[in-house]
Amino acid sequence: MAVYINSTGRYLPGKAIDNEEIENVLGLINGKKSRLKNKILNSNGITKRHYAINDKQQTNISNGEMAALAGKSCIESSFIAASKIQMLSCATSQGDLVLPGFGSMVQAELNLSEVELHTSHGICSSSMMALKAAYTNIKCDEADNALVIASELTSRLFKRSRYEQVTNKAVDFNAEFLRWMLSDGAGALLLENQIRPTGTSIRIDWIKSFSHADVYPVCMSVGIAKDNEHKSWQDYETYSEAEKAGALMLRQDVRLLENIVSIGVQGFLKLITQGKVEINKIDHVLCHFSSKYFKSKIFDMLETAGASIPESKWYTNLYERGNTGCASIFIMLDEFIKTKKLKAGETIFCMVPESGRFNCAYMHLTVME
Amino acid sequence: MEQMVLTKLGQNCLQALLKTWLDFDLSITKVPIVKRLEQGRLSIEDYQQLLLNLRQQVIEGSRWISRCASSFDRDYSDVRSIVIHHAHEEHKDYLMLEADYIATGGKQETITAFKKNTGSEALHGFLMYRASQPNPIDLIGAMWIIEGLGNKMACKWSKYINEQFSFDTEITSFMDYHGENDENHLLELYKLIDRVATCQKNIDGIIRTAKVVAKLYQLQLEEIDNV
């Protein structure tokens, strides 16, 4: 059974926030402007993003609500009624509640009846895991359709007060780094087992991912303090102690991050070897790279490998929509499909590297008649 | 970097070589001593063991490259020239390695008398065997893996080691030197790939040798903890 993406949707909260306004929303840590901000923004190349919190760091819209709005816009531009949706597959790196699963909250928000539910948990690649669960479900005839939604509300982790709670006050580079990288938003895809005359019915040819958690230490995390990599936030006497120790901060081990490039290219070469992808038959590349810096690294390594894909084939909306973690690839697909005049037979290669503990997901799509 | 390998077969070969290298890179990241090195848990004894064990392969290294050069006949005289140059450049690398060992407090007689570990024996044995075959173009696969590792040592390992230890004199000259020279070596390798990756059979041979060398090099690193 072939599986098609027949509709897409996105939701980006509030107005676009430019680089100058970021600290007006997230707040000044201990009243001081960041010294790192410009350096990191220059490197990632992001110029605009959206936040679900206001300038008093209060939440305007929840993660579940954003997911539902993206899902709603996706359903509204599709050929089917919400009541016909058979599966809901959701992803986020942090839901509004610790439990139950994010999918339950989104289902309730969307008021969908009796769907088969799936929630995948992880970071950037969790959306691809949610997509794969939905794809395989349709492919093996367990469902006729599935709504897949990925949503992120990371700005809550970047409020000034989060950093000010940490006892030794000094915010290290690894804890501050992602403050200038990530922002909020949601994206949705509707999958069906039939082509619709939308002009942009897109067949999913395959989805594949390779995880390397056995090789590398944790690179991006919430739940451990800087110097104590074995003590989980749940092992402290009280949650407030965990926060004071810095165990609730979103951290990135910047030094390990460079490995993301080689694992991304390694998986790509593996797929070439397996005959799943042919470089000169790729028409468009949608890669969830987190920054301009890593894009150039990926380019260099593909050139070294004699496997480069011309820059004109690469599409991204990272710089204008922000890095929305797992939602990025769906938000990218949505805008790409809606703004590009795609022709039948064109192929789209998607790649979502995740630095959490190094997982890289790939997908191959073909535009239908 | 501009495109260095121009032929279609050369590009195929290059892709397969880089894939083999990246697989090797992932595999050795899991080797216990490499894990300790890359995660800041290396002891000075570990580093000394690493040097002691690497030295035996490095000192033999120039032998297989020299033999490899001599196994190319008149049809490959251009390849022979490049390989001779390569052998000449590397045949005294082990002196740097010994100096590093001594700078960490090791004794000359210890490193001179040290025996190859079982992985080094296997690696050296395989390389000498392949180098003795007529026109051993597949050894470009071996050079690719070993050059790649040299680059990793210079760009990554040397930094980690220097962050963990401080000595009056330099202790990573061997690893650093490999980084400085690597770009030239890499250019030479690119040239060689275009020259010899002229049919699928040749490419298969190059990749097979690269894979075997990668596996045996990994064994050499694993065996450091078993010496």
Protein architecture, described:
- Chain A: GO terms for molecular function: 3-oxoacyl-[acyl-carrier-protein] synthase activity.
- Chain A: Residues 275-350 form the Beta-ketoacyl-[acyl-carrier-protein] synthase III C-terminal domain.
- The complex is a heterodimer of chains A (369) and B (227).
- Chain A is an alpha/beta fold and 369 residues long.
- Chain A has helices at 22-26, 37-44, 63-76, 102-110, 126-139, 160-164, 173-176, 239-245, 254-257, 259-273, 292-304, 318-321, 328-339; strands at residues 4-11, 17-18, 48-49, 87-92, 116-121, 145-152, 185-192, 202-211, 220-221, 251-252, 284-287, 314-315, 347-354, 359-367.
- Chain A has 13 helices and 14 strands.
- The model of chain A has no long low-confidence stretch (mean pLDDT 95).
- Chain B has 10 helices and no strands.
- The longest helix of chain B has 27 residues, at 44-70.
- Chain B starts with 7 loop residues before the first helix and ends in a 5-residue tail after the last helix.
- The model of chain B has no long low-confidence stretch (mean pLDDT 92).
- The interface between A and B is medium-sized, with 21 and 18 residues.
Strand and helix map with partners:
The complex is a heterodimer of chains A (369) and B (227).
Chain A: E1 4-11, E2 17-18, H1 22-26, H2 37-44, E3 48-49, H3 63-76, E4 87-92, H4 102-110, E5 116-121, H5 126-139, E6 145-152, H6 160-164, H7 173-176, E7 185-192, E8 202-211, E9 220-221, H8 239-245, E10 251-252, H9 254-257, H10 259-273, E11 284-287, H11 292-304, E12 314-315, H12 318-321, H13 328-339, E13 347-354, E14 359-367
Parallel strand pairs in A: 4-5, 4-6, 11-12, 11-13
Antiparallel strand pairs in A: 1-7, 1-8, 2-3, 6-7, 8-14, 9-10, 13-14
Helix pairs in contact in A: 3-4, 10-11
Chain B: H1 8-29, H2 32-38, H3 44-70, H4 77-90, H5 93-103, H6 108-113, H7 118-131, H8 139-164, H9 173-196, H10 200-222
